[in-house]
Amino acid sequence: MVEHEDRLSRVFSALADPTRRDMVARLAAGDATVSELAAPYDVSLQAVSKHIQVLEEAGLVSRSRDAQRRPVHLDAEVFDLMTKWIERYRQQAEERYQRLDALLDRMQGREQDLTDRRNEGAAG
Amino acid sequence: MVEHEDRLSRVFSALADPTRRDMVARLAAGDATVSELAAPYDVSLQAVSKHIQVLEEAGLVSRSRDAQRRPVHLDAEVFDLMTKWIERYRQQAEERYQRLDALLDRMQGREQDLTDRRNEGAAG
DNA sequence: ACCTTGTTCAACCAAAAGGTTGACAAAGCC
DNA sequence: GGCTTTGTCAACCTTTTGGTTGAACAAGGT
């Protein structure tokens, strides 16, 4: 839709592809050239080259030069961006859940069903 | 490409969209109905309905029923899946980086350039 | 200079994503 | 019963994505 979306979108989008996730997994064990990366997959070298481009645009990898080879290196810092985003909302959701639990404790004597949990969540 | 891809692909793919990420952020503060969720965005209710479906298929949200309303609820557990994946490879990459550092320490007297760092990473 | 190896660029294609509008279902309100 | 609210289904359109092939570029090796 938008030509160049925000960082987080590109990172999540890059990792949404299983082939690219697998490549990241392998790069975590050490740098690799394009053909080394391509070896296990049943697709053209060009397709792999494109995948690496996507990872690079997401800031997940960087490429150097070694003669004709273009070694691909995993840049782990971007992971922090994701982790922060995830943790933020997970914590928020968990805190909310705990507040709900506490509320349920306080009114445990009353005959209320789960609908109350949900309603409190939406309103509070 | 594949009709129903693995869980992780669907989760990352779902969060690759900024609108959906925003919806998740808002749901972390409490459940909401479809129209409540749709309100801030300049798109049709149908488009929002589709977004919610994507989040649901990714296991990020679930829907209950309250009269005509379909309250959307954030399921935080799926976040663990992502976090685990991310942490695994980040740690691996960091450990590798530290081993490289240690290696560099041991051979600090020699006149070696960064190429050695890269080569060790690819071969080891 | 020429060949080989490693990688990218360009054009093209099919499928998926994200949006639209129109019709319809489901449940409360008058 | 009929209207209104809330949401989904279906058909359609456009852009993006992930793949293809063929040509080209880059940098040693001989």
How would you sum up this structure, described in words?
- The structure is a homodimer of 124-residue chains.
- With 124 residues, the first copy, chain A, is mostly helical.
- The first copy, chain A, has two domains: 7-75, Arc Repressor Mutant, subunit A (Orthogonal Bundle); 78-123.
- Helices cover 62% and strands 5% of the residues of chain A.
- Chain A contains six helices and two strands.
- Chain A has a two-stranded antiparallel sheet.
- The longest helix of chain A is centred in the last third of the chain and has 30 residues, at 77-106.
- Chain A is elongated and about 70 Å long.
- The two termini of chain A are 35 Å apart.
- At the A-B interface, α1, α2, α5 and α6 of A face α1, α2, α5 and α6 of B.
- The structure holds a DNA duplex (30 and 30 nucleotides).
What is the CATH architecture term of the largest domain in chain A? Answer: Orthogonal Bundle
Domains of chain A (count): 2
- Oligomeric composition of the shown chains: homodimer
* CATH H level, superfamily name of the largest domain in chain A: Winged helix-like DNA-binding domain superfamily/Winged helix DNA-binding domain
Structural class of chain A: mainly alpha
Give the fraction of residues assigned to helices of chain A: 55-70%
N- to C-terminal distance of chain A: 35 Å
What is the overall silhouette of chain A? Answer: elongated
What is the count of helical runs of chain A?
6
Give the percentage of residues in beta strands of chain A: under 5%
List the chains of the largest interface with their residue counts.
Answer: A-B, 47 and 46 residues
- Give Rg of chain A in angstroms: 22 Å
Strand arrangement across the biggest beta sheet of chain A: 1-2
Order of helices and strands of chain A: HHHHEEHH
The CATH class of the largest domain in chain A turns out to be Mainly Alpha
Question: How many beta strands in the DSSP annotation of chain A?
Answer: 2
Major sheet details of chain A? 2 strands, antiparallel
Pfam families (chains A, B): HTH_20
InterPro entries (chains A, B): ArsR-like_HTH, HTH_ArsR_DNA-bd_dom, WH-like_DNA-bd_sf, WH_DNA-bd_sf
GO molecular function (chains A, B): DNA-binding transcription factor activity
Domain HTH arsR-type (chains A, B): 1-93
